[in-house]
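Quick one: structure for this chain?
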Amino acid sequence: MMTMELKESDFQKISRLVYEQCGINLHDGKKELVKARLGKRLRRGNFSSFSDYYRYVTTDEGQDELVMMIDSLSTNLTYFFRESGHFRKLRSVLPDMAAVRNEGRKNARLQIWSAGCSSGEEPYSLAITAKELLGENAASVAILATDISTRVLAAAIRGIFPRERMRDVSDQILKRYFRYGSGKWVGFYQVKKEIRDMVRFLRFNLMDFPPADFASDVIFCRNVMIYFDKPTQEMLVNRLYQTLNKGGYLFVGHSESLTGLTHPFNYIEPSVYRK
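Got it. Here's what it folds into:
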C-alpha cells in the first residue's frame, strides 16, 4: 500500500484548522500521528493527496468529513477508575454535597460533568461511584458526559468494554454493575442499564461556551488540557469556573496543573480545585 506524503505546508494548514475548530495544538511532534490517522481517511475517501483532503474539509460539502477528521485526531485510550485518587476524593465529598444540594429542595439534582469523556469509562466510573455511595439516592445525581468525537460517543453509549479497560475494577464491582459477554462478545463487559441510564451523552466542543444546563457541582476535565496551548487552557479553565456551582470541585489530570494560568479557583490538593 502506497503511503502518501504529508508535506510540511499541508501539515501546518491542517494543524491550524484543528486548532481553530477545537483548540487542539498539533505541534511538530504530532506530524506522524496526523499522517497515520488521516491517511486512513484519505484512502477511504479516495483522496489523491493531503492537499486535496484539506481543500475538501474546508468546503460546505465537506463538513461531515471535517467532523470525522476531528474525531480521528482527538481520541485517546482510557480505562475505568483511572487516576483512582480522584475517585477517593470524590467519595469523601459527594455525600455532603448531595445532602446540601437536596436540603429544602425537592427533586434537586447534583450534576457531575465528565468533560472530554472519550469512550465512556470515566462517566460510568462516576455513576458507579455515586451508586455505591448513595444507593437508591443515586437517582439524585445526574452524570453529563461530553466529547467532540461522535465515534467515541457512539461507543460510550453502547457501554461495551474489553477486559483490559477494567484493570482497576474489583470483582465485586464487575459482578454488580457489568454483564459478561458470550459468543462473539466473550472477553467483553457491558455496563448494566441502571448505570447507563444515569449518564447523558452529548457531543460538545469545549471551545464553545457551555449552555445553562451544563451547570455542575463537580467537573472532571482530565487529560484534556494537555492538548491545548496556554491561552486556550486559561480560557477553558475560566469557562469551567463559570459553569461550576458555588462550592463545586474541578478535577484535572495528574499530569496537568493550573499553575501559570490566571483563574479564580482555590487550590485543594494536586489536580483538585474548588470554586
